[in-house]
Amino acid sequence: MAGGSFTTGAVSNERAKEYKGRVTAYVIVACIVAATGGSLFGYDVGISGGVTSMDDFLLKFFPSVYIRKIHAHENNYCKFDSQRLATFTSSLYIAGLVASLLASIVTGKYGRRISIIIGGTSFLIGSALNAAAVNLGMLIIGRVMLGFGIGFGNQVVSLFSNL
Fold it and tell me: TM segments (predicted)?
């Protein structure tokens, strides 16, 4: 298997005996990488939830939702009832699911490093597209790219901590 190999039981037991329970720089970095990869979905939930309630954002990308928001009587369901807004929100999560499944194949065939590079590159492209978005299509494509980046990251990062 490229990029790493599975250890046998004897080698695992030998490594376990050598481990003295020290907190090394490597352990700290592995924990930070694992935590960062896992927190990307949670971070997005917080950010997208806040952004979708901002008037400037709604006015630019979802004007019909903005108009309903102004005239709504404190009913969040009716205020944000929009297939386009739902597509914006869910596109990242669906792309993340698909990417997690694809990432396992890529990781098995090419190794963790390539998967991390693919995830990071996808996330970078998605971030740039979302920052530069001028229309809804560009915004959703950016979210899909972000989802692929997060999906690859979540699948690979948990393996990274098992080195």
Answer: 23-43, 85-107, 114-134, 140-160
Q: Which two tokens stand for residue 100?
A: 């997690």
pLDDT at 7 over 80: no
Q: Please give, one letter per residue, the 3-state secondary structure of the chain.
A: CCCCCCCCHHHHHHHHHHCCCCCCHHHHHHHHHHHHHHHHHHHHHHHHHHHCCCHHHHHHHCHHHHHHHHHCCCCHHHHCCCHHHHHHHHHHHHHHHHHHHHHHHHHHHHCHHHHHHHHHHHHHHHHHHHHHCCCHHHHHHHHHHHHHHHHHHHHHHHHHCCC
For the purposes of burial, counting CB atoms within 10 Å of the CB of 35, is it exposed (0-12), middle (13-18) or buried (19 or more)? exposed
Model pTM above 0.85: no
108: CB partners within 8 A, 6+ apart: 1
Q: How confident is the model at residue 4 (pLDDT cuts 50, 70, 90)?
A: very low
> What's phi and psi for 144, nearest 5 deg?
-65, -45
Comparing C-alpha atoms, which of 117, 96, 93, 114 is closest to residue 105?
114
